[in-house]
Amino acid sequence: MRSIGILIEGKDGTVSRNSLGAVSAARGEDHRLFALVPDGAAASYAGALSAHGVHNVVDMRFEDEAPAAFDPVRQAEAVALAVGHFDLDALVGVTSAVGKEVLPRVAAQLDAPLVMDCVEIHLADNTARKPLYSGKTVGLVQLTGSTPLFGLRPNVYHPSLAPEETRTVSFAVPPGTDARLRVRKILEPRQEAVDLAEADIIVSGGRGMRGPENYRILEQCAQALGACVGASRVAVDSGWVPHTMQVGQTGSTVNPRLYIACGISGAVQHLAGMKTAGLIVAINQDPEAPMVKNADYAIIGDLFEIIPLLTRELLRSG
C-alpha cells in the first residue's frame, strides 16, 4: 500500500475546491491518503476531507510561535518533515499561489523530483502530462527518485465523493531554522480578492477595454453568468485592474469551463494561462487576432455593443 500526501489549502474554514480535486486525483485502490494541513484549520476541514476519501488528516502544530501570516518557508519546512515522518511515497498539491511557493521549497529540502502545472497524473508509475512551450504541446514526464511531487493545474481534477473513515493526527513541528525570509503581515486588497483559479466561468478584458471605467460592463455580464472577471497583462500593466485579475503566464493559470475573451489579442503568454479552458469564446474586431484563431467560437465586432446585448439576454432568460 502506498502512502500519498496532499497539501491542503483553504479559506475561512472551507477546503478549496482545487484541494479536494487533488484528493480525487490521488485516490487509488492501494493508496492511503494523508491530508497535510499547515494552516491550523484541520478541525474545520476534517468533514469535507473524510467525505472525499482522506484516511488521515494531519494537523500540523507549530511548537514555536505560529507565523503571523502565510510563511512559505515555515510551511515548506513543516511539510517536508511530515513527508519523512509519515513515510509518504508521493506528494500532490495545486499549482496555486501557495503551491508555487511551497512545493518547490519542499522538493529542494527533500532533494526530490517535482513537476508543476500537471493536467494529468498517474501515481502508479509516477508520470504526469503538462503543457510545454507556452501550451503549444503537452509533454509526458516521468519522475524518478524518492517522493515525487506533483503540482496540479487548477480545475483539472474535480472533487468527487468517496466517503472514508478518517482520523485526525496531530503533528508537532519543531522550531524553524533562522530563515532569511520572514512574513510579518499581509495587506489584503481593498476590494474582495478574485479567486480565478476556482472559477468555472471567466469573462476577461484586454487592451480593447480602453480604460478601467469600461470594466463595469464585464462585471455586469459576469454577475449575470455567475462568473469571475479576469484581465490580460496589458490591462494590469496599464493600472486599469489589480494584478489579482491577471490571467496568463505571469498571472493566474486558469482552467474554467467557459472563458470569454473580450478585446484580448491573445499573446502567447496569455494563451499559456487559459488555453486548456473547456470552451473559449473570443469577442474581437480583428479576425486575425491569435485569440480568435484559438477560440472555439469567435464574434467579430464591437465588444461595447456585444457585451451589453449578451448581458440583457442573460438577464431576460433568467
Outline the structure in words.
The chain is α/β, with parallel strands linked by helices. Helices cover 29% and strands 26% of the residues. It has two domains: 2-173, 3-Layer(aba) Sandwich (Rossmann fold); 196-317, TPP-binding domain (Rossmann fold), CATH 3.40.50.1220. The chain contains nine helices and 17 strands. A seven-stranded parallel beta sheet has the order 7-11-6-1-4-5-12, with helices on both faces. Strand 4, helix 2 and strand 5 (56-62) form a beta-alpha-beta unit. Helix 3 (72-85) crosses helix 4. The longest helix is centred in the last third of the chain and has 15 residues, at 303-317.
List keywords for this structure.
alpha/beta, five-stranded parallel sheet, Rossmann fold, 318 residues, 29% helix, 2 domains, single chain
With helices defined by DSSP (H or I, 4 residues minimum), what is the helix count? 9
- The helix content is 25-40%
Sheet with most strands: 7 strands, parallel
- The structural class is alpha/beta
Query: What is the CATH fold-level name of the largest domain?
Result: Rossmann fold
**Contiguous runs where pLDDT drops below 50 for at least 5 residues:** none
> What is the average of the pLDDT values?
92
Q: Please name the CATH architecture of the largest domain.
A: 3-Layer(aba) Sandwich
N/C terminus separation:
50 Å
- Which range does the strand content fall in? 25-35%
How many strands?
Answer: 17
Q: How would you name the oligomeric state of the polypeptide chains in this document?
A: single chain
CATH class of the largest domain: Alpha Beta
State the domain count. 2
Main β-sheet, spatial strand arrangement: 7-11-6-1-4-5-12
| The CATH superfamily title of the largest domain | HUPs
Radius of gyration: 21 Å
Shape: elongated
* Elements, N to C (H/E): EEEHEHEHEHEEEEEEEHEHEHEHEH
